[in-house]
Write a structure and sequence with these properties.
53% of the residues lie in helices and 0% in strands. The protein contains 6 helices and no strands. Helix 1 crosses helix 4 and helix 2 packs across helix 4. The N and C termini lie far apart (51 Å).
Length: 133
């Protein structure tokens, strides 16, 4: 992984980077290399079976080291640390990307200009740079 000066967008995005680096460096090449791995494996399976909202709340409440351990287990089992978000794209957008999903905008759309006359259409085309003059 290439190190950058750009900070991660969210707490969980930074923890995903840590988990990926642990696996890529060989420090955690198998699940038994995770500290307290039996308890973490049980915790991972409980989280994976939980509804998405409960899972997201639990991940937000857990301390960083525990979340990194869970993400390492996810990376080793599924070859991706994002397996816990497989059934919730909205959660992935909020937790990892730090973006609000489209539904959070409450259906607000940017109004397009209403063109009523030919001269307005010509002006709009010129404004957009289409070359019509």
């Amino acid at each position: 992984m290439i190190a950058t000066n750009t900070p991660p967008r969210t707490r969980l995005a930074g923890l995903v980077d840590r988990a990926r680096n642990l696996v890529a460096s060989g420090l955690c090449a198998r699940i038994s290399a995770v500290p307290d791995w039996t308890a973490r494996l049980d915790q991972y399976e409980d989280l994976a079976a939980a509804p998405a909202a409960d899972r997201r709340a639990a991940l937000a409440a857990l301390d960083d080291n525990t979340v990194v351990d869970l993400l390492v287990i996810s990376q080793l089992r599924h070859n991706t640390p994002f397996a816990l978000w497989a059934d919730t794209p909205t959660g992935y957008m909020e937790d990892i990307l730090g973006a609000r999903p489209r539904a959070a905008y409450n259906g607000a759309r940017h109004p397009s200009p209403a063109v009523t006359t030919r001269s307005e259409a010509k002006g709009l085309a010129t404004y957009r740079g289409s070359g019509t003059r």
